[in-house]
Amino acid sequence: MIGIIDYGMGNLYSVSKALERLNVDYIISNEQEVLFDTDGLILPGVGSFKDAMSILKKTGLDTFIKGEAVRGKKLLGICLGMQLLYEESEENGVTEGLSLLNGKVERFPGVSKGSGLNYKVPHMGWNKLNFHQDSPILNRVPEDYVYFVHSYYVKDYKNEELLASSEYDVQVPAVVGRRNVFGTQFHPEKSSIVGMSILRNFVKLVKEEER
Amino acid sequence: MLTKRIIPCLDVKDGRVVKGVQFVELRDAGDPVELAAFYDLEGADELVFLDISASHEGRETMVDVVEQVAATLAIPFTVGGGINKIDDMKRMLRAGADKVSLNTAALLNPTLIKVGADFFGSQCIVVAIDAKYDESINSWKVYTHGGRRETDWEVVAWAQEAARLGAGEILLTSMDSDGEKKGYNIALTKAVSEAIRIPVIASGGAGNAAHFLEIFDHGVADAALAASIFHYKETSVKEVKNYLREKGVPVR
Description:
By secondary structure, chain A is an alpha/beta fold. Chain A is built from 6 helices and 14 strands. Chain A has helices spanning 12-21, 32-36, 49-59, 61-71, 80-83, 192-210; strands at residues 2-5, 26-29, 40-43, 74-78, 88-89, 95-96, 104-107, 123-128, 130-131, 145-150, 152-155, 162-168, 170-178, 181-184. In chain A, strand 1 (2-5), helix 1 (12-21) and strand 2 (26-29) form a beta-alpha-beta unit. Classes of the chains: A alpha/beta, B alpha/beta. Chain A: Heterodimer of HisH and HisF.
């Protein structure tokens, strides 16, 4: 059973439909007791880092998620949900994150460091993954295109926590993780076959837990 | 590197895809869910569903269509047509659409763009612009009501205003090129795309794969939308992408 954390900031529908296609039980909830009884957690997210953290704090879900991650529960952050796993973001003023991974979140400069020309922000569309190291979440996943929509990206990360990246003038951490904590900057639920294979791997990791 | 997107557009009326879609291998060519799955398999990067229902019932049905499509489709899709207020946006996005497209409503009430972007995030808000060349200003004028009414807006000015208000993307249709199959409007697309810093989807005029190359190379488009050439199987998403790949355009 996977718990989708419902804190009012995500497209829960498409994530839940993707899980249905993978034949896995899930529950959408904001209640800690309910989420506690699951074998894995998904933290979705669309919107601003500051708003998201403020809701997570207000509801106590921040402490809960951190506790569960430390306990070893499999956790997958998607898009903003991945950014929330880091130490801080500069979006709308510096805000502290969940600090489960090392690094900070900054806005795309929007000006190319090579050419000095402007480029478009958000980073929106399909971009190619480049793998950096093996991980169960990337098991049998092709090094192919996935769908991104975001204006902020993770900087100053630890190399050992970078599993895959994409290039958008800067190097964009795309799949990240340490032990039981994973994140994807893109939307796996919107990334066709490639995205589904990553979600399938996460589901598999969670199911191994159930046994 | 970010790829150029190819986006088939489907017109939906009362829950069915219309405009004479021809798909021999599909059991039921009018079923939006089946067509969505077909285009996903073909390698479409996104889809646009345009609700052209005239009746209230038709509009209600669109919500069901969106739910069904969202349940099966693993690529992003936009819903446009008849989205006039924040509640309409909310319903479509809750039903599983990734983006909503505003056209006439945004021109009648530009703050709708801002309210929508603040509430759902800019990435959800596409502003669709129908533009037609006007000799007297040597530029393009923006039209509303499906191209029936001229506004005072010049296209670049309106695109900039929409971006300023928080639009995440511009879907730019050339009324001069639409249906002609002689290629996208390069001058129009370039003028808008270079004036704003959000993605521009070119629309209107696609007749063959070379037209896509033109609009990406010379029109500075980020994505290109087409309807009839895909529906009538004059070419396929796969063919267009193979051609673009050969010519060095980054595609998925």
